[in-house]
UniProtKB/TrEMBL annotation:
Protein name: Uncharacterized protein
Organism annotation: Emergomyces africanus
Keywords noted in UniProt: Membrane, Transmembrane, Transmembrane helix
Pfam families for the chain: SBF_like (PF13593)
InterPro entries xrefs: Na+/solute_symporter_sf, Put_Na-Bile_cotransptr
Amino acid sequence: MEPRSISPPLQEGEAKKPLTTIIFKFILHQWLLIGFGVGCVLAYYFPEVGKHGGIIKAEYSILYGAVALIFLISGLSIPKDKLLKHLLNYRLHLQAQGISFLVIPAIMTGLVRLIDATDYAEKVDRSVLAGYIILACLPTTIASNVVMTRAAGGDEAASLVEVFIANILGPFVTPGWAVALMPKSAAFDVWKESNGDLQGMYQSVFKGLGLSVFLPLAVGQLVRWKWAERTAWVMEKFYLAKLSTACLILLFW
């Protein structure tokens, strides 16, 4: 007869965790996705709060204030040499911008042209198809890209650099690229027309980038350079990285 093995007693740390602890830890780890859901629900029931010209004037307080706070925190948390390293990484630029401006538009253009060629009854509105192409040609998002990269444990500095490059190139690349990729059928001609006056668009885009992205990032980097140890202590003590995530949730509202 073989001797029975006796399992060692459970240590104190190995004791079965209560269900409330498991649920709490799950919420803590997934609070970004849960927050997005809460933001969408709030937007549905209280649309007057976050709409353009609403109670909190979201076109200023959120699109400028919340986004600026996200990039201020990024500037406080990322070392300058790490930003410079990724700024000089041309392979990263080719990969990220190539996917953003070449691969994704190519895939979407193929799908749109397939639908346009086979949808004889035009059940799909051609303005929707044109919107797909325009959306595919747009540069990557600004705030959500950086915050989600940080939340996923990715390289925030690399994400930040690619966001800058993409949104500087976007105003110059996207309009012409989107028009060039439109199907040749007459239904899309209205989307190819342009009055050629893009000055107002460029002013608005670069004003937004300057005030909500470049300026707060520069201020954050300056503060970090001047008071590196104090900045690191404040970032850790007051969980400022979590604050930037909360700002992103406000964008959903």
